[in-house]
Amino acid sequence: MHLRLPRVTDAQVQRAVGNLLRGGVLTAAAVVLAGGLLFLARHGVERPDYHAFRGEPLDLRGLRGTLADVAALRGRGIVQLGLLLLIATPVARVALTAVAFAFERDRTYLLVALLVLALLCKSLTG
Amino acid sequence: MSTLEFSAIVGAASFCAGFLGSLTGLGGGFIVTPVLTLVFKADIRYAIGASIIAIIATSSGAAAAYVREGFTNLRVGVLLEIATVIGAMVGASLTTVLPTHVIAVIFGLVLLQSAYLITRPRAERLDAEQPPNRLAARFRLDSSYPTPEGERAYRVRNVPGGFGLMGLAGVLSGLLGLGSGAVKVLAMDQVMRMPFKVSTATSNFMIGVTAAASAGVYIRHGYVDPALAMPVMLGVLGGSMVGRGCCSRRRRRGCGCCSPWWWRGSPSR
């Protein structure tokens, strides 16, 4: 017996994608702004130097370290979390597209979307 | 100068970049990286890290409006994202091993090439009566787009060619921290013979995903500095939102600012 999934219209998918993108960007921006203000309040007087490339410290290169920084209320960590949320927004969009294809019983494109999702996860986690 | 002053100036410069990017359609990536490297003397790796963040932010914001208009070809976008994401991962990995002056030279060449691509005239195509392409039919890529007279159908051709060019777009995105919108539009408009408005909308749809793949590699290699990316992201977002708002309002009043003389066939926003 097939599971009866509700039929989804193109307009519904478009609206959902649009809302997801807008919501994701705004949420990320809010987090980045909050972290930025905190960072500037504490480190605003320091001299920045981006001339020499040292690479970011290890905690800012991944999710676990970033979350630890957020828990410690470090501004840079909160900003980095916002940036990760921003990167997650198009990834979530791909996932939403996969769900839409699933609802449309489109097996080919469900697989295509899942493949894109898998590739994205590979790039984010190494 | 202090970090506070630096952030304020970078934020203002990014605002202008976002504003110009949304008006011209050339994209923030071409403005942010040169400004950060040439004016603020940042190492190019920090610059492309910040730039890719700006691209995800602006393209995702713009994509929300594009998708609603109904020009985006979802299937073409998702299918070709396989190519752009793989390309972006390859390009971003390349950028971690190439010397910075090589990256800078490639950046300059791609900038010139993209500027040239945008000024090329495009021919109006009315070939919906052609027989369907085998691969396009297999993947159900043919579709239609809204016009004042109703839905107009179009066919998609040369899928392997489009796929290959999208892979190149991805490599450029990962290598240089760009959105590669111009190459994507080229792939769909010229190679796959899709209507121009559909190409620009679908290209915009794909830019965020491509950039996210690049950004993942950049973050893991420590290219993305939060203190630098923060004013860039917020500035570019603000500028592009103002640019889009200003553009749509003025177009209703019929001013020519959103179709500058060098940009023939400006995409609807």
Protein traits:
heterodimer; A: 126 residues; mainly alpha; 4 helices; B: 269 residues; globular; disordered C terminus
Radius of gyration of chain B: 18 Å
Q: Largest inter-chain interface?
A: A-B, 64 and 62 residues
Strand order of the largest sheet of chain B: 1-2
Shape, principal axes of CA atoms of chain A: elongated
User: In the residues of chain B, how many domains can be counted?
Assistant: 1
User: Radius of gyration of chain A from the CA trace?
Assistant: 19 Å
Helix content of chain A: over 70%
Write the H/E string of chain A, N to C.
Answer: HHHH
Structural class call of chain B reads: mainly alpha
- What distance separates the N and C termini of chain B? 39 Å
Low-confidence stretches of chain B: 251-269
Oligomer category = heterodimer
Largest sheet of chain A: none
Task: Summarize the structure in words.
Chain A contains four helices and no strands. Chain A is mostly helical. Chain A has helices at residues 10-43, 63-71, 75-103, 107-125. The termini of chain A are far apart. Chain B is globular and about 65 Å long. Chain B has 269 residues and is mostly helical. Helix content of chain B is 70%, strand content 4%. A two-stranded antiparallel ribbon of chain B has the order 1-2. The longest helix of chain B is centred in the C-terminal third of the chain and has 27 residues, at 226-252. Classes of the chains: A mainly alpha (126), B mainly alpha (269). At the A-B interface, helix 1, helix 3 and helix 4 of A face helix 1, helix 3, helix 4, helix 9 and helix 10 of B.
